[in-house]
Design goal:
Length: 315
Amino acid sequence: MGKMAFLFPGQGSQTVGMGKSISDSYVESKTIFEKADQTLHTPLSKLIFEGPQEELTLTTNAQPSLMTTSIAILESLKQYHITPDFVAGHSLGEYTALVAAGAFSFEEGVYAVRKRGEFMEEAVPSGEGTMAAVLGMDRNSLTAVTEEVTNEGNPVQLANLNCPGQIVISGSRKGVELASIKAKEAGAKRVLPLDVSGPFHSSLMKPAAQKLADVLDKMTINDAGIPVIANVSADGMTDSEEIKQKLIEQLYSPVLWEDSVNKMIELGVDTFIEIGPGKVLSGLVKKINRSVKTFSISDQESLLATVEALKEETE
């Protein structure tokens, strides 16, 4: 068996009831949900376990809820002494990865992502920015399209480079609409508008990044204990100053997910474990490279199944 990476999901993976079976089964996990409630002075765990879904999906709630659930699952996994060589997370998930790597405490992390969600919501008035998934087009051709539209005065750029043939664009509503039309004309198979509350990972998020910098300045950020593969560079980072800088840049820069997964494979990773609700990242890893092993841990049942499978591999 080669090296192992833990992956942490981003916004969009949230579902009502996530983490409940883990919280009921492990006191360490239950403690994480309690810490989230205390830190944010709100019954976040009640919202996670009982909903409603519309409220859970709001960016300001979804971000701390996903981090809390993923870290609660990680705490339960720690009982089995399974440790990664690298960690990475998609957008918001990068904060979870940094908690997992010891760069900052869960309490500081969950507060930071709550504020991050607020700043992202405030950065662009509702309805003025959006995102769309472009399928079946390479990044260079799509970059040419977005640059052309942006130069005409309608900002739009690549936001998530998820896997081959799946790229998300983000920007002003007009910019995304024009780029979507031009992308289809240039050969994209499909363009799917996304149901999001803002133009995340675009230049329009720079005001949010400035506010986030103030929050990060007040945090205790340590060097990471294991390399965290950064969304912005698809490279490993452990230095505390670099971590802070990359988190600020991450808000308005593309998430280089395909590159990040390829980087980990290049570094010897052959086993990826997604920790948190859903199987989005495991699915992307398989589209990037079918030869690696993937596991998803979202509840008590999948946790035990993964532990058992890994045990068999090492015997």
